From TrEMBL:
Belongs to the homogentisate dioxygenase family. It comes from Gilvirhabdus luticola. It holds the Pfam family HgmA_N. Keywords: Dioxygenase, Iron, Metal-binding, Oxidoreductase. Its cofactor is Fe cation. This is Homogentisate 1,2-dioxygenase. Residues 57-251 form the Homogentisate 1,2-dioxygenase N-terminal domain. The keyword Oxidoreductase applies. Residues 282-383 form the Homogentisate 1,2-dioxygenase C-terminal domain. It comes from the Bacteria.
Amino acid sequence: MPFYHKLGKIPHKRHTQFRKPDGILYSEQLFGTIGFDGMSTNSYHEQRPTQVKAISKQYSVAPKIAKSNNIKSYRFKGFQVKPENDYLVSRKTILTNNDCSIILSAPKQSTSEYFYKNTDADELIFVHKGSGKLRTMFGNLDFKYGDYLLIPRGIIYKIDFDSEDNRLFIVESHRPIYTPKRYRNWFGQLLEHSPFCERDIRRPEELETYNEKGDFLIKVKKQGDIIEMVYASHPFDVVGYDGYNYPYAFSIHDFEPITGRIHQPPPVHQTFETDAFVVCSFVPRLYDYHPQSIPAPYNHSNIDSDEVLYYVDGDFMSRNDVEEGHISLHPAGIPHGPHPGATERSIGKTKTDELAVMVDTFKPLMVTEEAMKIADEDYHKSWLE
Ligand SMILES: [Fe+2]
């Protein structure tokens, strides 16, 4: 996140002697991205973070592709994804390309036996159902319905759920995920026209520090494999850190919609950006107020973007027969638009309660075998009168 955060104990100067009460030095770690050019955090550990005891297993979790070149519009019934006890097992990749993966997950249990680290990708976890606590090496974040959790690549975490009824929509991104540049000034401060501001970004305020030795299993994701690594010290042994690279939470309910006299284009809903895709939040809002306005969107061809919409709650006015947990995929190369009757139906309406998350990718998405299990094969004909 492009603003500074400090938590726990740190020395006055970086790269200087910082000792425990018994005189032993803390282990300093610079945790950075994009070489030494991206955002980084300087952290201080009870133990050296390098103590690998064993590399015990390695296995592929790469998604199996059903359609690599797809031009068919799809609807996927997300809540048909079967709940699984284990968090990592529960993560089913639905759509993927070289830049990102879109994952549905219905985990029943907290991660208690292992820690997890994704070295390949930033993870954006949208909480559709469930609540709990994300525990990370850089502190904890409480979460609930409507939260986005952004976990930059490489941050070790566990996730604790309050109940077994959880539904997550996850985007794994091989490019760093930022908030939109156009809403920030030269210093990184969010500007007055931004639909959210720094007060809406929840940073870790609770740091758990364990100075323990033993066998600690970290499941590390790298290049489509999970590699099980056993470390000799507890991964959450940070006594303090400062910098710009840390996990944070943002609630979709804190996104302030931008509205106008006539239909506003999707970029007004933009919440996150990368150089390979954008993420938008469609939230309850007042409709357009020109006397002749048509609130439903017009037909459109994003000729070179795949558009993925994840329906969270409310009545999605431009679509017929769409329910919570559904995903629509409108691929690049063909136009899409309101369903029959939706345009007339929208006229005169003054507000919407819709809640949805959209991911627009600049390269085509491949459809996985997991996606085909929950696919509506006739959706592409749903615009016929
Ligand atoms: Fe669209």
